[in-house]
Amino acid sequence: MLDDLQAMPEPDLEWAREKYKAERDRRSGKSNRSAYRTPGSGIAIDLRDTYRPRIEREVRNEQVDAVIIGAGFAGLIVAIEMKKCGIGPIRIIDTAGDFGGVWYWNRYPGAQCDVESYIYLPFLEETGYIPKEKYSHQPEILEHAQRLGRHFDLYDDALFHTGVTDVRWSDSDRWTVTTDRGDTIRSNFVVMAGGGQDQPRLPDLPGLDEFSGHVFHSCRWDYDYSGGSHAGDCAGLEGKRVAVVGTGASAVQLVPYIARSADHLYVLQRTPVVVGERLNKPTDPAWAASLEPGWQDRRMLNYSTLVLGGQQDEDLVDDGWTHATAELASVYGGDKSDSGVSADEAAEAAERADLRYMEKIRARVDRVVTKREKAALLKPWYRYFCKRPTFNDLYLPAFNRDNVELLDVSGPAGLERLTKAGFVVDGAEYPADAIIFASGFASDLSERKGYELTGRGGISLRDHWQEGARSLHGVLVHNFPNLFLMGTVHVGLTINYTEMMMRQGRHIARTIELLRARGFDEIEATAGAEDAYVEEIVAGREADVAFHASCTPGYFNNEGMPVKRGKGLTDTVYAGGLFAWVAMVTDWRETQDFAGAELR
Amino acid sequence: MPSEAYRALVEQLFAAPMPADIVEMREAYRAMGDAFPLLADVGVTKATLGGRPAEWLQVAAAPRHIVLLVHGGGYCIGGLDSHRHLGGEIARQTGSRVAVIDYRLAPEHPYPAGLDDLKAAWAELLATAGDDKIALVGDSAGAGLVMALLADLLRDEQPLPASIYCMSPWADLSDTATSRTIKREADPLASIDQLAKMAAHYAGDIAVSDPRISSAFADFRGSPPVFIQAGTAEVLMDDALNLAKSLADADVDVDLELRAGMIHVWPWFFPAIPEGAEALARACAFLSRHFADA
Ligand SMILES: Cc1cc2nc3c(=O)[nH]c(=O)nc-3n(C[C@H](O)[C@H](O)[C@H](O)COP(=O)(O)OP(=O)(O)OC[C@H]3O[C@@H](n4cnc5c(N)ncnc54)[C@H](O)[C@@H]3O)c2cc1C
């Protein structure tokens, strides 16, 4: 257990600052530091859906009330909330062949949610389903998305294997949505629920086309090649030399599974990830039977209150997330204590707490990984929330296997290129039969939508967001009437993504319901209200931007490169955390008469 | 049975002996140490200690206690580069901060220059250690220096280290011990002629058998526990035995570990040979145990 390590002496703050800085500097300013590109830039990676055959259907030419782009949990939740409010007909459109979003696409061996399934899987009470384990694996999560589709009768509203290519406003017809199937769908409202993790990110590597072996990204797992299933047993990898590029959340989950099958596994690491304890367990039927109505809402609330730094009598979820956030000042905002200490003192206390916690994380590496060279390389040297922490009990032990080789690509040359027979790290060539990119997803706001969005007067969202995201509450956008955003831009966050989507989905549905109840059909943020909100966001994030600037390069800090104010991933978040945001939008909607929005 | 890696190492050392010239020897030693890569989790901080260049090696961000590592090299060679890997590993295994100092070397600086540097470093550490305890670690000539410092601390009734770890001490600079001849063929590292030259460089005007130079014969009454490792394939084996006897004569807790077939300061080669890694682990356990003692 992380917690029963012997009492730790006072951390050496000065030393740690130096060490962290050295680790950051070593990874910054090198040739391939921002060397990630998204598909479409000439990379030979196939992003088509190989999981499900495409079914031919009639071209749609229709008028609906709302189009929802994206059939992941965000799209599902807002669709369900709209139905509850009597909004319809709706169309849910996704390039995937089914509901599920990231859980449709990410089927790699070992894929699993890292937030407890009893709060991550939405609408458990409505559907009467109890997950089999504390942390569900992908097949069960995908099944639950399908269950929501059936239970709330959404399949008839969905257009799958359909990519939205254009979304355009006209004052006469409102929104027109066009798709790659030739559909033309007119709609009063549009919800952007396309997620933020649908465009795989690949290192910008010379030789990617030269490599004669097999290449794929973890979010399009090629079981035809690997054999086996989500549960492992990838017989197709037997006798093969396989390289996994990246050591983020996906790699942590899949490495232990393929290590068992591959003859030799290289794990290419730029920055070691934080690996906390998982302690997954099957659901106790007696506990499940004891749950009282309203339990899921209470559990979500309890969890988010705790991870946002608030107080609760009980820690219902009681896991790595709640333990970590209990010991650390949360960077997600929320309760800021005003116990009379100065800001500097509070910051230093937070830094000390962080350092102690990270020492436990590093000590765990030493305890689990027997080879000292590997252990040394696997220790993360940055503050806990610099990168999304992971929780896993199989990843670190996998490095004790003789067939698993850890390659440090953080050096000046790093992963230089692919060759016909393999890849080159720091001048040395390694033969490989397959290269699997577990290198995460494109996080650049403007690059990942895949469709043009044009608002009033022909202005595109891309142009409107040229200098960074602009919105009111992360929901409405000036010049884009009746468009609703879902996701992480300009909203208050919590760790549990689906809880945020529940809150956003309810807010959107209720906004439309109230709008209509008051006799209006259109809503749009005013320019002034949008300006003021953007200012509030940017000002509120300065501390966080400084925090992330001190981290090793990664997607939270634009690979360590300077970003325009208001454009990075971390300075586009509402500083108060989820609950403050919910309070703000509820007040705005229910009592402030949609102040800052124009109703028509 | 020595490991395959160990046999290969010894073979390689016999095949490529150290150059005889001091300047060349310094470079060769530096390069040998440098060839052992520092592991990714070791933090290196430049410092000065006792007025000399020094380095802190640290792995734990919440370190406890201090090790002063005094490098070997016949009082004439060695430095920060030759011992960084060793210091880093001691830091990892003991959770302490390890200081390595670049004390002045003979022949440019004969006795007492190196010892004076060591004393100044010790005094500075003592003044800044706070609640941390300090252990002394040395290999070969470094162990000789450590024991000379200890003898002075005991004589002057100064505060003492928590424990002392000596790897293959060179603590008898006279040329009389029988291991000098018996082990001659077996030792790939230390040649008698070379030792005699280095001893003369260091001793300067003083007799090499003087306890200030040959600390194996000093008075250690009241010393904290000492852990000594030596191999049976070293011409310096008797130094360990004589040192252990002086300590035992003075009623000191002494752990003497003699390993068959091991060469001079084999724990220094720990990244390459399992015998070295195991020996170093035992020594670090000893240091940790005495840090933990009240
Ligand atoms: C492997 C993985 C594991 C994760 N685990 C967790 C976890 O444990 N806990 C947690 O809180 N979060 C987790 N996340 C974050 C995750 O993104 C959210 O939890 C959530 O599932 C995202 O839902 P979403 O509906 O917003 O987006 P998505 O699930 O990405 O759904 C968006 C959908 O929109 C579709 N789409 C996009 N553009 C278009 C277009 N132009 N036309 C048509 N369709 C389009 C995409 O195909 C996709 O299916 C994980 C993410 C990944 C990738």
The CATH homologous superfamily of chain B is called Alpha/Beta hydrolase fold, catalytic domain
Measured by residues with Cβ under 8 Å of the partner chain's Cβ, the largest interface is: A-B, 24 and 16 residues
**Uncertain segments of chain B:** none
Please report the first level of CATH classification, the CATH class of chain B.
Alpha Beta
Number of strand segments of chain B: 8
Give the C-alpha Rg of chain B. Answer: 17 Å
- Mean of all residue-level pLDDT scores of chain A: 90
| CATH topology category name of the largest domain in chain A | FAD/NAD(P)-binding domain
Structural class of chain A: alpha/beta
CATH architecture of chain B: 3-Layer(aba) Sandwich
Instruction: Count every helix of chain B, treating DSSP H or I runs of 4 or more residues as helices.
Output: 9
Output mean pLDDT of chain B.
Answer: 95
Helix and strand string of chain B, N-terminal first?
HHEEEHEHEHEHHEHEH
- Content of β-strand of chain B: 15-25%
Unreliably modeled segments of chain A? 31-42, 330-336
User: Class of the largest domain in chain A in CATH?
Assistant: Alpha Beta
Report the bound ligands by name, code or SMILES. Answer: flavin-adenine dinucleotide
